[in-house]
Amino acid sequence: MSAAKKLAWILDDNRIGNLNQLKAISYYLKDELDFVEKKVNFSCTIFLPNFIHIFLNTGTSLEHFETDKHPDFIFAAGRRSALVAVRLKKLFPKAQLVQIMRPSLKPNHFSFITTPKHDNFKAADYEMLIAPNFINEATLKDTAKKWPKLKQTKKKTLTVIIGGSTAHKKVTAKAALRLCYAITDLQKKYNAETLVTTSRRTGANFENILKAKLTDNTQIFCWDDIKDKNPYLAMLAKADYLLVTADSVSMIGDCIATGKPTLVYSDGFGNKKHLSLTYNLAEAGLIKTELSIADKDLFDYEYEPVCEAKNIADAVRLKLKL
Predict the structure, then answer these.
(1) Residue 34 lies in a domain
(2) pLDDT computed for residue 151 by the predictor
């Protein structure tokens, strides 16, 4: 570790999405801080509210941290990691805590908190429109090189990213069919080649509907078939237009990080939180919605790519005087 830099821990809570958000932010702070990833193990009671764990001193064991070099900063993402960060603060009282997403603990435990704008969390130091990610022009260009045969024609490309059912919203067969009809209409309207990818939440029945209804000029990559060879980022890179279902904050964030025209489709997809996000992004001029699907200029608009990883890093740098 460089003597000129301070030590920062990234807490790995075994959730790849949370870890990737922290790593994306760390990329823009690497000139000031030396980052080390720290694996966290939780007890079977971690599902209990954080305030109970703080009171009972439970939820995770910190024994394997006690002999480590004291960190100057601890970066955490999500409720579970927030608990670990606060308990680590007792071991390392000089460490400053940087929290991504609502911590479900008193805000005064933390030196910096960033939460999604749609959370309306009053104690946030920075409200992000989307989750921080690694997507930028360089990473997309590099990924596209690995999939040279992905685009088959010289037509414009419509990339479709499909989520699926969530804990609070089940996607019905009728909703899946309506989405297929919308995709077909866009294909015809824009004379577009179409790339479609599903996710782990899409489900076999939904995938079968896609395969049956999207038969012309379409490549479909189903989650169960691709897993280890997922062309997701390459599909973002090769897209001229993007359609993403409204049920995933991260997928929507990935799309608008590209700077490409994006339609967020919410007819039968997404819950109240997702719809609030969609509203905020539409108000900011970053996306269109299915309400304008008949508009011939649906994809005829421009915006600056959103790089929340850099924005959050800048906000951390400013508040914590790095």
Answers:
(1) yes
(2) 75
CATH number at residue 110: 3.40.50
User: What is the side-by-side strand order in the sheet with 73-77?
Assistant: 33-39, 6-12, 73-77, 96-100, 112-116, 126-128
| CA–CA distance, 31 with 33 (Å, rounded to integer) | 6
Query: Considering Cα of 270, then 238, then 257, then 304, what sign does the dihedral take?
Result: negative
Residues 125 and 152 in one domain: no
Whole-angstrom distance, CA of residue 192 vs CA of residue 213: 16
Element spanning 218, H or E: strand 218-221
Residues 56, 65 contacting (CB under 8 angstroms): no
pLDDT at 67 (0 to 100): 67
Indicate if 122 and 178 belong to the same structural domain: no
Whether the Cβ atoms of residue 164 and residue 203 lie closer than 8 Å to each other: yes
Predicted pLDDT at 223:
74
- Whether residues 103 and 126 share a domain: the answer is yes
- pLDDT of amino acid 58: 67
Report the distance separating Cα 61 and Cα 72, nearest Å.
21
In the predicted model, residues of the chain with pLDDT beneath 50 are none
Instruction: Determine the pLDDT at residue 92.
Output: 92
Range of the domain at 107: 6-131+309-319
Look at strands 33-39 and 73-77 and give their pairing: unpaired
Residue 159: partners with Cβ closer than 8 Å, 6 or more residues away: 194, 195, 196, 197, 235, 236, 238, 239, 241, 242, 243
Cα pseudo-dihedral 11, 15, 20, 22, rounded to 10: -30
**Is 243 in contact with 159 (CB distance < 8 Å)?**
yes
Q: Is 49 among the domain residues? A: yes
Look at the pTM and tell me if it is higher than 0.85: no
**Residues 11 and 98 reside in one and the same domain:** yes
Two tokens, residue 273: 């939180």
- pLDDT tens-digit map of 9-56: 999 988 888 999 999 999 999 999 999 999 888 767 677 777 677 766
Neighbours of 238 (CB within 10 A): 18
In angstroms, rounded to a whole number, what is the distance separating the alpha carbons of residues 133 and 301?
Answer: 23
